[in-house]
Amino acid sequence: MKKDYELHTSGLVRRLGLFSAVMLVVSAMIGSGVFKKVAPMSADLHAPYWVLLAWGIAGVISLFGALTNAEVAGIIAEPGGQYAYFRQMYGRMFSFLYGWTSFAVIQSATIASVAYVFAESVNTLYTLPTLPESWTQISLLGLQPFDNFGVKLTAIALITLLTTLNYRGVEYGSSVGNIFSSAVVVCIFCIIFLGLFWSNGSVENIRTVSTTRPPLESMSLFGAMFTAMMSAFWAYEGWNNLGFMGGEIKNPHRNIPLGLMFGVGFVMLVYVCINFTYLYVLPIDKLIEVHEQQNTIAAIAVVKEFMGQGGVLFITGLILMATFGSTNNTIMSAARIYFAMAKDKLFFERAAVCHDTYRTPSNALIMQAVWATVLVISGTFDQLTDMLIFASFLFYGAGAYGVFVLRKKFKEVPRPYKAFGYPYIPALFIVFCVTLVVVSLFERPKECGVGLLLILAGLPFYWWWKKDHK
After folding, report:
1. Domains annotated on the chain, with CATH
2. Where do the TM regions start and end (predicted)?
3. CA 336 to CA 360: how far, in whole Å?
């Protein structure tokens, strides 16, 4: 019987085709942000049309990033994705800092954050237990680890379950992603249809600005737009996860670029349509009220408006499916970064182990789960996502610039796909990344400062591992 896969030199196996590649992108992106982030964006911008513009700009920029990244993904199809790309572009130290930051902030915080929203959704169906106030008020370094403890414990249980599932084989993780993502997309389009044609919503809601918040002046609007786009980019975050699976995608030089393009384009369409529906159904002042309430999710408030309590159960189930699938995707793909780093002797040596039976980076999965659990306990959802978006765009910009680097460095290497609009689209994406990083430093200095400290904290580890394995 002919094998349906090939063995990668790392010990991983190429089992996943084009459909799985597209669904990996979709499931990585459609998690919690599409249901939650319209509320804080409304509070930032005070007008529905500015909120929709922020979603549209963030989608176009993400698509530009994916189209640029696809060229590199088509020529360097190795486990670890951007870690492997940066090693070729800028050398071992820069690639290590990316991998370290993924472990410390970007990917682990994504797992923690989306699992947290899953737990919040469970909390809307069944009130989870909390600790006494004497415990919840305990503060450690400005954080309250025992606050909302029932929600945090549920998020940790989900991380443990999905890590165990992915430990036992890539096909299990991929199947979960395909099934849950397909179901979520169908349900989202049902909400769009019902919201636009069955609810009592109005186009007038799209035109009406907040009556409780003052209108924004030009400079205030500029800063608020970038702050709001930080929320939108959290929803778009994850499109580059496909590259992490470079050692497990069939015909990767073709399927990874196609998966990126089709996946990101489709998610952009979904996001603009569903957020238009939210703003069509509920006035912006009601969405701002949602933002000011703890453990309340915007999508639930919208669907409750026109479907009642039955709609609450429906949307809660949908959010549970989406966040379950998205958490699974990030757990599955991100562990390949640390596996690749350990293979290069730049991470804990045990993380380089490929399980003899399951052909998975088993130890890397366990280490990732432990750190994600720490992040769940230590921080709130929005603090984590603001940290990771800032850190992500530092490296997105470097990745886009790397297209120019590799065009000079590897002139003769065949490119199954060449970056769309080169050099203008990649250059525009780089400029946007730099602008977002600078604005973020002013708008979110605390979160960005913590992100920078976590990145720089990797340098002693790099020198230690480098020295230890000379």
Report:
1. 6-468 (1.20.1740.10)
2. 12-35, 47-67, 96-119, 179-198, 218-236, 256-281, 312-339, 360-381, 387-407, 419-442, 448-465
3. 9
